[in-house]
Structure formats: structure tokens, C-alpha cells
Amino acid sequence: MRKLLVLALVGFGAQLVDGSLGMGYGVTSSTLLVLAGLTPAAASASVHFSELGTNLASGVSHWRLRNVDWRVVARIAGPGAVGAFLGATVLSSLSTEAAAPAMAAILAALGLYIIVRFVLGVRPTLKKALTLKFLAPLGLFAGFVDATGGGGWGPVATPALLVDGRMAPRKVIGSVDTSEFAVSVAASLGFLVGLGTAGINWGFALVLLAGGLVAAPLAAHLVRVAPAHLLGVAVGGLILLTNSRTLLTSAEATGGTRGVVYGAVVALTVAGLWVTVRRHRRDAAPEADEQVREPLHV
Questions:
Q1: How far apart are CA 87 and CA 184, in angstroms?
Q2: Span 174-220, pLDDT tens digits
Q3: Which residues contact 186 (CB under 8 A, 6 or more apart)?
Q4: I want to staple 84 with a disulfide (CB 3.0 to 4.6 A). Which of 162, 187, 238, 280 is the partner?
């Protein structure tokens, strides 16, 4: 009973992070299930089945709060589903461990760039809409990584779209979360083909689902009301933190080294949030003064 309660709380927390920052559900939940004794394939399958419900609830919540760009969803969801199905069936037996450190280094660099960009207030000048030529390969790769690693759709797709800069952070998060439903469906079908129902813990999947369903509407509301610059810095910090963990694990770093690196990442993120808030208040002050000084017209 205690284990099920812990799983429900993990599902709630993972979905709260995933729905508000665009990543984290799969990686967090899969890690816990592996620690609970499931094989990596069974853990990934259980998580993807639970995501069928959480992603649907999250997508509906983001849609109702207008956090979704349906043109992006239409262009990235299909390729993402194809990549997820391939990753869960034909290609799931291939090891992605060798590529994990290289990908983590790239994503960590993207996370650092996102923090710097939002702290400095850099505004991209790209005006054209995101094209299928850009979104299709991104969706295919993110879907494949998601199925083979038990999570990865958000950590790959979200930073790529944020770095591109043509979408507001809340639109990026809402669109990535909504399109993930198609990825979860395809991955689940792939696991049924490759594994059948053997090894899948349906009880764990349902408990994770229950916790995630409670968190989905709250997370979508947080995205709606949170300032874009704060979302950007927070997402960048999460990307940097999760990929630093992958790099430290591959390097077999000691506990002390890990603590120093994690502390530095957290300190950088907090400092970035503080600087961003101060800059936002400073920029808003002249506008407020101008409104106060504006003469009344009788």
C-alpha cells in the first residue's frame, strides 16, 4: 500500500513538472519503476500506458487555456508517433547508452543557452512559421528517444522549440504536451507488439495515471499564468540539471562531485530567475510611470 501511495505521489509530481515545464514525466517515472524491480523495457511500457491518460488530460487542459499551437501539433505528432513505434519494436533492442552522454552534452548546452537568452532578454527575429521540414525530423528523433529511454519527448522537443524562438514558452510547453499523446499511443502499440503484456505492471501504470490526472489541470493553469521569462529560465534549468545527471553518471562521478555540480546548476537557475524578475520590474516601471503622468482629457 505504501509503495502504491508513493507511486501516486510520483505520478502527481512528475505530471506537475511535465505539464508546467514540458518535460520530466517519463524520465522520473521510469527511473522509479526500474528501482522498484521492473526491467527497462517493462518500465518504459508501463509509463507509456499511464501516459495515455495523463497526456490526454494534459492536452485537453492546455487546449482549454489556449496554450496549444495546433499547426505545430499537426506537424510534429505524426513523425513523433512513427519514431516512438520504431523505438518500441524493431529498434528497441539496440542500446542507446553509448549515445546518451553525447546527447546529454548537447541538451545541457541548449539548456544553458536558454537560461542565458531569457536572462538577457534576447528576442529572436525569426518571423516565419515553423515548417514540416524542421518539425518532422525533430519529432521522429524525439519519439525514438522517448520509447527507447522511457522518456525523452519533452527533453528533446521542448528545448529545440525554445531555442528556435518562434513560439512563446507556454505555447511550446502546451504543444509538446498535447502532441505527446500520439507518441504515447504509438509507443504503447509498439510495446504490445514487441513485449505482449508480459512484464508490464498494470497496477503501477494505473496508480501513476491516477496521480497524473490530478496534476494535469493544475499544471496547465500554471503555464497560463506564469510569465514567459520565468518559464524560460525554469525550463532551461531543468534541462541543464537532468542532463548534468546523465553526464555525471556516465563519468562515474563521486557523490561529492555530483553535489557540487547540482548545487551550481540550482544556484545558476535561481540567480537567473532573480535577475530576470528584476529586469522585468525595471522595464515595467517606466510604463507604469508614463500611465500615471498621462494627462486626463476632459
A1: 12
A2: 999 899 899 989 988 887 777 666 656 778 788 888 888 888 888 88
A3: 80, 81, 82, 84, 85, 88, 143, 147
A4: 187
Q: Does 143 fall in a domain?
A: yes
In this structure, is residue 180 part of a structural domain?
yes
Domain of 142 in residue numbering reads as 2-293
Q: What burial class does residue 288 get, using C-beta atoms within 10 Å of its C-beta: 0-12 exposed, 13-18 middle, 19+ buried?
A: exposed
* CB atoms closer than 10 angstroms to residue 156: 27
Centre a 10 Å sphere on the Cβ of residue 68 and count the other Cβ atoms it contains.
24
Q: For the chain, how many structural domains are there in total?
A: 1
Count the residues in the chain.
298
Residue 298 lies in a domain: no
Q: Which residues of 1-33 are buried (b: 16+ CB within 10 A; e: fewer)?
A: eeeeeebbebbbbbbbbbbbbbbbbbbbbbbbb
Where residue 137 falls among pLDDT bands split at 50, 70, 90?
very high
Residue 135: the pLDDT is 92
Q: 254: buried, middle or exposed (CB in 10 Å: 19+, 13-18, 0-12)?
A: exposed
Give the number of other Cβ atoms within 10 Å of residue 121's Cβ. 12
8 A C-beta contact, residue 248 and residue 264: no
Helix 70-88 vs helix 153-164: crossing angle, to nearest 10: 140
Assigned domain for 144 exists: yes
The per-type count for the chain, helices as H runs and strands as E runs, is 11, 0
Give the dihedral of Cα atoms 195, 90, 135, 100; nearest 10 deg. 90
